[in-house]
Amino acid sequence: MATVTRWFWVRHAPVINPDHIVYGSSDMPVDVSETHMFAPAARALPRGEDVVWLTSTAGRTHKTRDAIVREGYPSVVSVEDGRFAEQGLGDWEGLTWDEALPGGEQHPFWHTTAEYRPPNGESFLDVIDRVHAGVQEWTEKHRGKDIVCVAHGGVIRAMTTIAMGLSPDKGLSVGVDNCSISRFDWVEYGETEAKQAWRTGYVNLSPRKPWGFANGNALGDHEKG
């Protein structure tokens, strides 16, 4: 039998940002008023005493976790891990995008290329490296368990890049809606690396799409093991 460690990634609630400023890893208020954004996750995420809950250090991930509990998920104790913070955009944070990138090079679906590091910030490549380190440590610590991590769009794109073996450029093209769930399984058939691999369950199952969530609990239970 294989040992399967399942990661469920939830993107935080919509940020309240009427001035459209660059915020990156800065903390921002979020809108948790809409029940329909959180009830699907409350139904679909795995339950049980062995489920491990993680968040980033940002308050918006904590408020999203609390909104999921409010909509019927059992109360949880989560652990913060700064390696799952959003991409730090350094001196750009607090500016408008026009101020931050006057004529600069951009990705079709993001404001910079994967390799570019804003002044005093980090690149998407940096995010991939720290997310990978965090995932490896938590997977080793909780082999065979379910891990729920409430995090950020950039973090979930990084995880998708890692699990699916995408180029960083392609990883930036992955859509990640607010309050969506993505699942990746670390499957181990033996002690050698040749028998260990990521299996993608689903990416960006969104509460905004009626086909995004099943009515039952723990989407994909039949695939475990």
Would you kindly provide a brief summary of this structure?
The protein is of the alpha/beta class and about 220 residues long. It is built from six helices and six strands.
How many DSSP helices? 6
**Percentage of residues in DSSP E strands:** 15-25%
Fraction of residues in helix: 25-40%
Mean pLDDT: 90
CATH class placement:
Alpha Beta
How many structural domains in the coordinates?
Answer: 1
End-to-end gap:
7 Å
Give the second-level CATH assignment, the architecture.
3-Layer(aba) Sandwich
Major β-sheet strand ordering: 3-2-4-1-5-6
CATH structural fold name: Rossmann fold
| Low-confidence sequence ranges | 214-218, 220-225
* Anisotropy-based shape: globular
Number of strands: 6
CATH homologous superfamily (4th level) name: Phosphoglycerate mutase-like
Oligomer type: single chain
Give me the Rg, rounded. Answer: 17 Å
Order of helices and strands: EHEHEHHEHHEE
**Structure class:** alpha/beta
What profile does the largest beta sheet have? 6 strands, mixed
